[in-house]
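USP domain-containing protein, pasting as requested.
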Amino acid sequence: MFLINKNQAIICENNHRSELPEHQLFLTIPDNELSFVEWLNQLENEKKLFSGDNNLFCETCGQRSDSEIVTERIETHEILAFYNGKSKNLIENAPNSVSLGENQYEIFGIIVYSGRHYIAYTKEEGIWNEYNDNEVTANKHPNPNNSYMLFYKKTYN
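Structure tokens follow.
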């Protein structure tokens, strides 16, 4: 995933664009009233203010300055994986498809964690399979609610 950020130093009003290429970009899913889709939509145009002890160095004027960073665009890979951690199942009402920028993604994998036990679901050629220890069950459509890991694949129409 690539984030294209614009950093504007408030003191000199200089703009600096940066591209942050990451194969693993760790983003915190907020523990509030936002749905998973609303959170994804907020990734673009997100503004962060860095001030006081957290101010940033401006490469143009050579001074530290309060700065605002705006995520202007997100460019993504073929596969998106959203990891939620096993302490909480925060991903609720996960959609079957998501849009990020101009890209559309369809869910193809889900992992559910429940008290020291993992159950994995994969979708191949439109058919869901459940992997539960040594048992594989075909045509078992998962409930993506309360998943702790989701996998999406880019679709091409």
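Note for the archive: The chain has a mean pLDDT of 75.
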